[in-house]
Design brief:
The complex is a heterodimer of chains A (152) and B (186). Chain A has 6 helices and no strands. Chain A is elongated, with a radius of gyration of 48 Å. The termini of chain A are far apart. With 186 residues, chain B is mainly α. Chain B has a domain of 91 residues: Orthogonal Bundle (Rna Polymerase Sigma Factor, Chain: A). The chains are: A mainly alpha (152), B mainly alpha (186). Chains A and B meet through helix 1 and helix 2 of A and helix 2, helix 3, helix 6, helix 7 and helix 9 of B.
Chain lengths: 152, 186
């Protein structure tokens, strides 16, 4: 019976796809690009992954070892006191320097205001400018007359 | 050009090389799928999916003593499993039978042969998926037990046991199918 059964199964061999389907499917497949990419190529991916893991391990080891010294150094009371004192002196020096600059600025501003030789406050210059304005007055009167004529 | 050379060229992105591999295997893969899903549109869709997956993942194929066909059938077997996993409704046996007959234009005139094919195919449909796969691979595609074991990820012993049980069940289904129906006697 098994022989007959196997013979019956063998009779399924002639099953074949439609020729039109085979061609269409082939064309569709070959128009699709493969996933091959220089970035995600398997060996490249493996090596870059390995490098990333190595870099991570190195940076972790640096972080885990280096901070211990820094923390102990920063908690040393003598060093902290010294650092604090230096900080106060630096602040005071900066403040003195700032005040000196301010005083100089105020003094120079006051002297400029009181100084009649300064160009923009010089009375002689101002008078000259006033005269210049007066000199052009007749022309302005003429312009006024013309404008009034136009308005009328 | 040898199959190995074609695979290597396809792995380098040469689509024509993959096209030749497609030409070599499309009939076998289609037949394997068609017997399992029993409808031509589904078989065509799945065949396309299988070759598309193969083409897109050909970089992953490695020469490890098994032929390219084993790798291709492994994709096919998994694709059919996914198909049944996601499919909600079963197709009627009548529809399957009609569609199966349409695949044999040369046998259409020989009604007896066509009917026998229909009967065997329907009986195969009643087997467990693994049993179907083993019988198709063994007696239709003529794979060795070792190759089937590799494709299914089982031992050769397990394949032999599955094959034995599958033949036994298939025989029962066919015998029951040949028995005259009670309502036809009246």
């Amino acid at each position: 019976m098994n022989h007959d059964l196997i013979q019956k199964l063998n009779n399924l061999k002639p099953i074949a796809p439609d020729a039109v389907f085979v061609k269409k499917c082939r064309d569709a497949l070959l128009s699709v690009r493969t996933k091959k990419s220089p970035v995600f190529n398997w060996p490249v991916f493996v090596w870059s992954g390995a490098f990333a893991v190595l870099a991570l391990a190195v940076s972790i080891s640096v972080v885990l070892t280096a901070p211990k010294q820094a923390v102990s150094a920063s908690l040393d009371p003598n060093k902290l006191n010294k650092e604090f004192n230096n900080l106060a002196i630096n602040i005071q020096l900066q403040e003195i320097s700032y005040r000196q600059n301010i005083n100089q600025t105020i003094t120079s501003a006051l002297s400029e205001i009181s100084d009649t030789n300064t160009k923009h406050l010089n009375k002689a210059i101002l008078e000259k400018e006033k005269n210049d304005l007066n000199a052009s007055q007749p022309q302005e009167q003429k312009i006024d007359e013309l404008l009034e004529t136009v308005i009328k | 050009m040898t199959e190995r050379e074609l695979i290597q060229k396809a792995q380098n992105g040469e689509s024509e090389a993959f096209g030749e591999l497609y030409d070599q295997y499309v009939n076998r893969i289609y037949r394997f799928v068609f017997i399992k899903v029993a409808s031509r549109p589904n078989a065509e869709d799945l065949t396309h999916q299988i070759f598309l997956a193969a083409w897109q993942n050909i970089q992953n194929f490695q020469f490890q003593g098994f032929p390219f066909s084993s790798w291709l059938y492994k994709i096919a077997a998994n694709t059919v499993i996914d198909f049944y996993r996601t499919r909600k409704q079963e197709e009627s046996i009548e529809f399957i039978a009609e569609d199966a007959l349409s695949e044999f234009p040369e046998f259409a005139k020989k009604i007896d042969e066509a009917a026998e094919i229909k009967t065997v195919k329907n009986a195969l449909q009643k087997l467990e998926p693994d049993q179907q796969t083993v019988l198709i691979m063994k007696f239709v595609d003529e794979f060795s037990n070792k190759e089937i074991a590799e494709i299914l990820g089982k031992s050769e012993g397990a394949v032999r046991v599955t094959q034995h049980r599958a033949l036994k069940r298939l025989k029962n289904f066919l015998q029951n199918n040949n028995e005259p129906r009670l309502d036809s006697k009246t």
